[in-house]
Amino acid sequence: DAGVTQSPTHLIKTRGQQVTLRCSPKSGHDTVSWYQQALGQGPQFIFQYYEEEERQRGNFPDRFSGHQFPNYSSELNVNALLLGDSALYLCASSLDGREATEAFFGQGTRLTVV
Amino acid sequence: AQSVTQLGSHVSVSEGALVLLRCNYSSSVPPYLFWYVQYPNQGLQLLLKYTSAATLVKGINGFEAEFKKSETSFHLTKPSAHMSDAAEYFCAVSEAGSSNTGKLIFGQGTTLQVKP
Q1: Which chain B residues have any C-beta within 8 angstroms of a chain A C-beta?
Q2: Which one of B36, B104, B108 has the shortest CB-CB distance to A41?
Q3: Shortest Cα distance from A45 to chain B (angstroms)?
Q4: Which residue from A minimizes the CA distance to B111?
Q5: Banded pLDDT at B40 (limits 50, 70, 90)
Q6: Are A5 and A90 a contacting pair, CB within 8 Å?
Q7: Is the CB of residue A6 less than 8 Å from the CB of residue A91?
Q8: Neighbours of B116 (CB within 10 A)
Q9: Interchain CB contact of A31 with B (< 8 Å)
């Protein structure tokens, strides 16, 4: 089992550009959540996808959007990048319908905006 | 609204000493509580979780945590620190109930340094 895989591992973008990050969930998982972890901070919930729909969203602007595919993989898109978007972006997968469902995290994508 | 407070952004212990990392939570409904560990340049790994069963929860790598409702705390302990325990530790909360989607609210993290 490969666990949760994210690509790319590192990315450098210029202010104003757009970026797409990708996530493949752990085998058997159907729910994908995205988190932003700024340097020295705890992860902040961006949104969660289930059955190809955004089910819950954190306090992030509309510049942050996502998608889930029929195979449960997911993408995170960020438009009009700001310097403050520089962070580690973590994808977590879980199995819906289970109480206290355990989230498995990927290694993250380190995004640097210059 | 849920929140998590980790007291002490940096904890330093000697190898073999007791590890105590503090976590207090705020939740209007019975919470689920988690401790995650993050090694440099890696994602988060679950150490243990509380799900309203036993209040003393044992996890991996010799860690355990005790849920104290009266103190709204979920402190993480390990009797004897190893050098390999040096990492960032995060406490997280999610809410129990039918609407639970597994959204996690994390604390700011505590960096554990282990001195030889």
Answers
A1: 4, 32, 36, 41-46, 49, 51, 90, 92, 94, 96, 100-109
A2: B108
A3: 7
A4: A40
A5: confident
A6: no
A7: yes
A8: 6
A9: yes
SS3 B48: strand
Token representation of residue A85: 């978007």
* String of DSSP letters for A17-51: --EEEEEEPPTT--EEEEEEE-TTS--EEEEEEET
Q: Is A97's Cβ below 8 Å from some Cβ in B?
A: no
User: Which among B46, B102, B109 has CB closest to A33?
Assistant: B102
β-partners of residue A87 are A111
> In a structure prediction context, what are the per-residue pLDDT tens digits for chain A, which is 114 residues long?
679 999 999 999 999 999 999 999 999 899 999 999 999 899 999 999 998 999 889 999 999 999 999 999 999 999 999 999 999 999 999 887 655 678 899 999 999 999
Tell me the β-bridge partners of B2.
none
- Chains A, B: CB contacts within 8 A come to 69
Judged by DSSP in three states, B60 sits in: helix
Buried b (16+ CB within 10 A) or exposed e, A57-93: ebebeeebbbebeeebbbbbebeebeeebbbbbbbbb
**Does the distance separating the beta carbons of A45 and B103 come in below 8 Å?**
yes
